Amino acid sequence: MNETVQLLLNHRSVRKLKDEPLSPDVIRTLVEAAQMASTSSFVQAYSIMGITDRPKKEALAKLAGNQPYVAENGHFFVFCADFHRHIQAGEMEQTEVKPAVESAEKMIVAVTDAALAAQNCSIAAESMGLGICYIGGLRNNIAEVSNLLQLPNYVIPLFGLAVGVPEADPDRKPRLPVEGVYFENVYPDAEVHAEQLKAYNDTISAYYKERTGGSRSDRWTEQVSGLLKDVKRPHMKQFLEDKGYNRH
Amino acid sequence: MNETVQLLLNHRSVRKLKDEPLSPDVIRTLVEAAQMASTSSFVQAYSIMGITDRPKKEALAKLAGNQPYVAENGHFFVFCADFHRHIQAGEMEQTEVKPAVESAEKMIVAVTDAALAAQNCSIAAESMGLGICYIGGLRNNIAEVSNLLQLPNYVIPLFGLAVGVPEADPDRKPRLPVEGVYFENVYPDAEVHAEQLKAYNDTISAYYKERTGGSRSDRWTEQVSGLLKDVKRPHMKQFLEDKGYNRH
């Protein structure tokens, strides 16, 4: 197994990072690595914000639900879906591109493009011995985040990425069994899923038991049901439409 | 610069792959690498289909707009947004999770999760000397693709990923300038974008001129305007809603 595969298999999210800025060279390399990810039809439909301003980082940490590692880290990125520059490109070429950009299809494109880039950035960081943590909590108060970063229409702050020297070494969390996620040729029926979910519940219960000396033994199905019993971030659909995405 | 960063910076999509199946061990490692990507609140909201059945691969190649590398490759994956197993988890736990799953927020979660996993899979493949190419063309006829793979509600085939031994060595395509994609603290105004777009147009024109002995000299703004002048895949919004996504 080569070094890169080992690195990928060894991932864990790190929620305690040294509060010491990364060098501009490192940041540039991370952005360049992000940019080399595949992009749908070469549209490159994303932007990457880097937050270095201390009050802004503190404000983001608060907006993300008081997550201290949003403020305390080596660097904080915000990955954005971005068709703003394509609207501008259309103006330069006297072409009306808004109807296409405003389609649900192009939202899928932009979210995918941004995520592929972010994952390259994460892996580059981890290959340098840095720790990373994605921050979906930015969507808790997405309009406020958008205002704080002065994002115009056609730019959506999707998630943050905290990067820095790790100050914790969390456990590697076991994923769903391969047989519960990967299927050949035909999607399996409910019984197959039920079997995999039960096996996985045992794995996850054992994982928590071992970590907590027996005080926690959550099932995965219990965790995700708890997480999904309430509608979170009900503002997302309206926000997307307001910003020019997902309109038709 | 370490080996992994070099690998990331050296990416190119390969559209000619050897038609020789990858070994089950390699496929398993690629899936395991995919699974270790970060996932929002540990929901793991995706599935990975592997297509080994020849007639199915041929059918997908046709549905994707006659792209031969969908059928001819070492392995063909389809990455799907998937909250189907969470609905099942909810049933196991007597919890109603559909209202949350059907929100636009959870569509963003599932698309992001699937893309992060796919990018890990791609990087693992490239680290083994394999070539990869993402196939967004599956969304051209997404309902037919969904039927072919017998995907139930709450499963969306987002894109394919062809993997295999490369039979071509395409050029590395220059991305937007770092200064046109990465911004610190504040999103820049239109003049900054215009400047970056002009510089990038020169880069891309030079790239095509050199590759074609002068017969092509497309500007990037011209390419993306051409691509975005028509609404493509206008069925996406309805399809997403029909399958239980993006409803509110």
Computed CA radius of gyration of chain A, to the nearest angstrom:
20 Å
In CATH, the homologous superfamily of the largest domain in chain A goes by the name: NADH Oxidase
Biggest interchain interface, per-side counts:
A-B, 117 and 117 residues
Chain-averaged pLDDT of chain A: 97
Write the layout of secondary structure elements.
2 copies of one chain form a homodimer.
Chain A: H1 3-9, H2 24-35, E1 46-51, H3 54-63, E2 75-82, H4 84-92, H5 98-101, H6 104-127, E3 131-135, H7 142-148, E4 155-164, H8 178-181, E5 182-184, H9 190-212, H10 220-228, H11 236-242
Antiparallel strand pairs in A: 1-2, 2-4, 3-4
Helix pairs in contact in A: 2-6, 3-7
Family (chains A, B): Belongs to the flavin oxidoreductase frp family.
Keywords (chains A, B): Flavoprotein, FMN, NADP, Oxidoreductase
Domain Nitroreductase (chains A, B): 10-164
Structural overview:
Chains A, B: Belongs to the flavin oxidoreductase frp family. Two copies of one chain form a homodimer. The first copy, chain A, has 248 residues and is an alpha+beta fold. Helix content of chain A is 47%, strand content 13%. Chain A is built from eleven helices and five strands; from the N terminus they run ααβαβαααβαβαβααα. Chain A has a four-stranded antiparallel sheet with strand order 1-2-4-3, with helices on both faces. In chain A, helix 2 (24-35) crosses helix 6 (104-127) and helix 3 packs antiparallel against helix 7 (142-148). Chain A starts with a helix and ends in a 6-residue tail after the last helix. The model of chain A has no long low-confidence stretch (mean pLDDT 97). Strand 1 (46-51) of chain A pairs parallel with strand 5 (182-184) of chain B, so a sheet runs across the interface.
